[in-house]
Amino acid sequence: MNPESHGLFGCVVLVRKDDTERVPQRGQPNEEFSVLLADWLTFMVPLFIAELRHMTDEEIRRARADALEQIASHGDDLQYGGRHQGSSRTALAKALAILARAEGGVTALGVHACLAPHVDCPGRPLPVLTDHPRDGRTEPPS
Ligand SMILES: [Zn+2]
Q1: Of 13, 72, 131, 137, which is most buried by a Cβ count within 10 Å?
Q2: What integer pLDDT is reported at residue 137 of this predicted model?
Q3: Does the predicted model carry a pTM greater than 0.85?
Q4: How far is the CA of 82 from the centre of ligand 1 (A)?
């Protein structure tokens, strides 16, 4: 495992209102689905991130194609329920786990997922570097 990675399960967090996507708020009838889906994704995506870590590029390509097919064919079941609801939601979580591998991760549906620290990560921001003292000293004044 890369020592600079977020670990086996990556970093998966709900995004706040100020981030690139708005977090759905509870209590609004049309938003309840989004809230529950985002909560569920924060549970499932880390599991798929861990599963995908040991896959070859070809296996990931196949997983991406399968997820795309499932979501494209049964997206309505995913949102409104139906025979394929479970498999399409699983495909969505797997797709986000695959996209989390990209530099900077992925932010979608109220969730951010990534595998390594990066600028503007809503989960684990990079540490803030402080300026050196203006007088050229390298250590803080006592
Ligand atoms: Zn991130």
Answers
A1: 13
A2: 52
A3: no
A4: 33
